[in-house]
């Protein structure tokens, strides 16, 4: 089963991206390096609650 998750910047906490995650295959929180428009650089984005 897939679940919609929202990714937030680890530095400025702005919620920039949303994606789908396979809940049955991955039980930890998703962490991806993506571009943040607020910070104007690539930063780590983490899954929010």
Automatic annotation (TrEMBL):
Keyword Ribonucleoprotein belongs to the record: yes
Superkingdom of source:
Bacteria
Q: Does the keyword Ribosomal protein apply?
A: yes
Q: Which UniProt keywords apply?
A: Ribonucleoprotein, Ribosomal protein
One GO cellular component term of this record is: ribosome
InterPro entries membership: Ribosomal_bL33, Ribosomal_bL33_sf, Ribosomal_zn-bd
A Pfam family hit: Ribosomal_L33
Transmembrane stretches in the record are: none
PANTHER family tied to this protein: 50S RIBOSOMAL PROTEIN L33, CHLOROPLASTIC (PTHR43168), LARGE RIBOSOMAL SUBUNIT PROTEIN BL33B (PTHR43168:SF5)
Q: Which family does it belong to?
A: Belongs to the bacterial ribosomal protein bL33 family.
Question: Could you identify this protein by its name?
Answer: Large ribosomal subunit protein bL33
Origin species: Virgibacillus sediminis
């Amino acid at each position: 089963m897939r679940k919609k998750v929202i990714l937030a910047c680890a530095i400025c906490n702005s919620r920039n991206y949303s994606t789908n995650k396979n809940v049955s295959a991955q039980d930890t929180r998703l962490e991806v390096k993506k571009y943040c428009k607020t910070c104007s650089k690539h930063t780590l984005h983490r899954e929010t609650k």
